[in-house]
Specification:
Layout: H1 12-41, H2 54-81, H3 87-112, H4 126-149, H5 159-172, H6 175-181, H7 200-216, H8 230-248, H9 259-266, H10 271-279, H11 289-309, H12 314-318, H13 322-347, H14 358-384, H15 394-422, H16 429-443
Helix pairs in contact: 1-2, 1-3, 1-15, 2-3, 2-13, 3-4, 4-5, 4-6, 7-8, 7-9, 8-10, 10-11, 11-13, 13-14, 14-15
């Protein structure tokens, strides 16, 4: 028919493999989280596992959530975006996934052995500190080779797309080097000595990075609608304006009591409206709508609650309490998980419909919301009584029992997603051959 007939047939199996790896790490991380919740109720239970104490399990729980669950759906999106899910690069993509999981698993063994650096999400030490960046380098090479292979088979008018993909590869290139260097306390200190807490500038910077990701994410997932999306111009213009605002703010020990700091962060509320309008400019499949709506709802709550938490008087009470843990859960268990499941559902197409389990959807989101509200209440009490979470008591214990129940509910939901996707039958070779025959017939 045209240039599209020259393209290799995509292999959705590698994307499914990325989803299975990610969901498996999510389940493992959740199970570890449940064990941590048990230890908070029954500290003596920690004696059963000898040196494998709460402090050793915590970095494993957090790093598996970040580098396992949060990262791998985005790896799947990257493979699809650069068309590394096609031809021979799909097999190398599978190898990259196994190398990634192997490095992460060895990292878990290292952290349990006491090898954590003590730096949040930068606990890489010893041999995993080399192996995990090496896994990222291998993945980068697979994606780069897919990009080079597809150079001549892209659309004739895709010059801008090629340039954007090349820029993306260049931006990703230093990631493994930075990940290797960052755990060194001499290069990147565990505690920033120039500030006593977050500033409006630092929070706005990190928030804008997330916004840019939300604007880029639909590309490689779904097609843009034929009509021009005026909201795209509005959004990118707003990003530029917010970037200039961020650059004008003070750094270092700028206090959140300065009006310019908390007012600048409050400008993020505009994205509660802009992101949904921007996403309306793309053709989302019907089965993706539940997770699309959940992502938008969690995003709105994250932005509004985050702006409130930074206000003078509020941050002073909740800083270093479970109140900020609540905000982290909102970001990860609420917003990020919904967004990642949206990515997987769209990438896997009809296979992704297996993730459309109503009871898992409501169980996860309902438990996450209750979890967040519980932590926020605990943090507020703790702000007035710092001993609240440290000293056993009826109310404190009730909070911990409810938290354990919520964690078990979320573990059940994540286990159901993994089992449902694992049961998807592999595509028969005959079906693959039929697809290739169709492509050859179109070319003829």
């Amino acid at each position: 028919m045209g240039w599209e007939a020259l393209l290799p047939v995509p292999d959705r199996g590698v994307l499914r493999a990325a989803a299975l790896h990610g969901l498996a790490w999510l389940l493992v991380a959740n199970l570890i989280g449940d064990w941590l919740a048990v230890l908070l109720l029954f500290p003596k239970a920690g004696e059963w596992l000898g040196p494998l104490s709460y402090g050793r399990w915590m970095p494993v729980h957090m790093n598996l959530q970040l580098y396992g669950w949060t990262a791998l759906p985005l790896v799947a999106w990257l493979l699809k975006l650069y068309r590394a899910d096609e031809s021979w690069t799909a097999e190398w993509g599978r190898a990259a996934l196994w190398l990634w999981s192997l490095a992460l698993g060895l990292g878990g063994v290292s952290w349990l052995a006491g090898g954590a650096s003590g730096k949040l999400f930068l606990d890489w030490t010893g041999y995993p500190r080399v192996l995990f960046p090496a896994a990222i380098v291998f993945l980068w090479c697979v994606v780069a080779l897919a990009y080079l292979r597809g150079w001549w088979s892209e659309r004739p008018d895709a010059g801008l797309v090629k340039a954007a993909k090349a820029v993306g590869l260049l931006l990703l290139l230093p990631v493994p080097v930075l990940l290797y260097l960052a755990p060194d306390t001499h290069i990147y200190p565990a505690v920033n000595p120039s500030t006593g807490g977050p500033t409006g500038a630092s929070q706005l910077e990190s928030s804008l990075i997330v916004v840019v990701m939300l604007l880029v994410l639909p590309y490689g997932l779904v097609k843009a609608k034929a009509c021009k999306n005026i909201w795209a111009w509005v959004c990118w213009g707003t990003v530029a304006a917010e970037g200039l605002l961020c650059a004008s703010l003070g750094r270092g020990d700028a206090s959140h009591h300065e009006p310019a700091q908390w007012m600048a962060l409050a400008t993020m509320v505009v994205w509660v409206v802009l992101i949904p309008q921007y996403w309306r400019g793309f053709e989302w499949p019907a089965y993706a709508w539940p997770w699309l709506k959940a992502s938008v709802a969690w995003w709105a709550l994250l932005v509004v609650l985050g702006s409130w938490l930074f206000l003078p008087g509020v941050l002073d009470r909740l800083k270093f309490t479970d109140g900020l843990v609540s905000h982290s859960l909102l970001a990860m268990a609420g917003f990020a998980t919904s967004l990642l499941l949206l990515v997987l559902v769209v990438l896997l197409e009809e296979d992704g419909e297996r993730l459309d389990s109503a009871w898992s959807f409501w169980l996860w989101n309902g438990a996450a919301l209750a979890y967040i509200l519980l932590f926020l209440a605990a943090g507020w009490i703790e702000g007035g009584n710092p001993a609240f979470t440290m000293t056993p008591g009826p109310l404190r214990n009730a909070f911990y029992w409810i938290r354990l129940a919520q964690g078990l509910a979320m573990t059940a939901a994540s286990g159901n997603w993994l089992v449902r996707l694992a049961r998807v039958p592999k595509r028969a070779p005959v079906e693959i051959a039929e697809m290739e025959d169709v492509a050859e017939g179109s070319l003829a």
